[in-house]
Amino acid sequence: MGEPGSGAPVVLDGVVEQVLEFVTAAGLGAAGEYAASPGGAEPDLYGSADAAAIRYILSDLPADGATRDQWVAHLRSFQDSDGAFRHTSHNAFHTTAQAVGALDLFDAQPSHRLSFLEPLLAAGGIESLLDELDWTQPWMGSWTGAGSASALLVTGMADRAWQQRYLGWLAQETDPVSGLLRRGSIGQDSGTFFANLAATFHYVFVGEYLAAPMTAPEAKIDSALRTYTDGMLSADRSVGFAQGDWAYVLNRATRHTSHRGDEARAALREVALGVADNVLTHGIQGSMHDVLGVVTTLAELQNAAPGLLLTPRPLRSLLDRRPFL
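The structure corresponding to this sequence follows.
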């Protein structure tokens, strides 16, 4: 059992052990304090937030006690007075969503209200933000469009009326042919088309978190299968967020429609085997954020291909707990 490419179940117990060793190696001694990667000497917000997310996925996160309390305090220490969390690697929307999402794993909230996001709650606020994103760079723009929504939802600042406004904008602006965002700005070459799919992923997980009907699930499946058949998901060199974004869109769309179900399941299984082969061959490497991308991808593929990827305990879906990655 466990030869990638054979279609037989693949045992990933050793990969889970490597991930836990990686996280431990990035620890700086105090509870919750992690560097961005093993060997780093400075506490890093993403190191701490991503370590919490990884350990949640692996069912290894302390739920109570002094370790939990110190971790929460450390995460809160990164917040600015306007409510934002900031980091040089990502914009404040992404970083805030990541930090608030990490706190939520401990059933905790940030110390300060997210006042920098309050203008988005006013009439037309979130719609203006989404309208004014640079839709020629949709993947990066989705950090803002989905990160703001995630942070507002997880902190309880966004009421039902706001949620409906947000979902309504997404439904209206979804391209009916591709199922992707944004209508009128879908790139057709392989790179730009995949960027639209990866951007759409960020908005799909907000909709899934809110248990909303999915707009154009059949078209989303067609687009995901197009990227698969066009070879955009090669796991020969690296695996991580790209394969995970794709897997989430395709897997979750199959829950809303039976359209091309057999093809979708076959593609998900093949990509799952490719990702498993990569991590078994190359091991766990990169930054804590890179490893989060690998682990979340494995979790979604384990769910999408039942019985194929075996771990000591089933991997938890981070996005079923909080709407941001």
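The first helix runs from residue 13 to 26.
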